[in-house]
Write a structure and sequence with these properties.
Blueprint lengths: L35 H9 L10 H9 L7 E6 L5 H14 L4 E6 L17
Parallel strand pairs: 1-2
Helix pairs in contact: 2-3
């Protein structure tokens, strides 16, 4: 049995920018966070983005336009039922033919651990 000895590298890249006024730059695109065709162009250039689109909606859409890039999203089960999160990632894995990845995190927001709407409180 042969083992896959390839090294897979992962990077978070933000070609759309995270500075408050990045959209004012002469080379920037004011609509990039909500412009799927532009985001698809970024993905086809082997670059991930941080956008205003929901990551588990955007990744399957990118999966049908790409063949070789991994599609990784961050998701927390703090305020989402684990079953629903896992089901979304399983769907992404099938649509992308195995190129899905889950950056599993706990929330950095202390309010999510308090009783409230997402924890059954009022």
């Amino acid at each position: 049995m042969s083992r896959d000895r390839r090294l897979h590298l992962v990077a978070f890249m933000r070609p759309v920018g995270i500075h408050t006024a990045w959209w004012r730059h002469s080379g920037g695109w004011p609509d990039a966070n909500f412009h799927f065709e532009r985001l698809a162009t970024f993905a086809l250039r082997r670059s991930a983005t941080v956008t205003s689109f929901d990551p588990l909606t955007l990744r399957p859409a990118l999966a049908v336009l790409t063949e070789r890039i991994g599609l990784i999203a961050t998701a927390s089960t703090t305020c989402n039922e684990p079953y629903h999160v896992v089901r979304r990632f399983a769907s992404l894995a099938h649509i992308s033919k195995g190129r899905a990845g889950w950056n599993l995190v706990t929330s950095g927001n202390p309010d999510e651990a308090s009783p409230g709407p997402c924890r059954g409180g009022r």
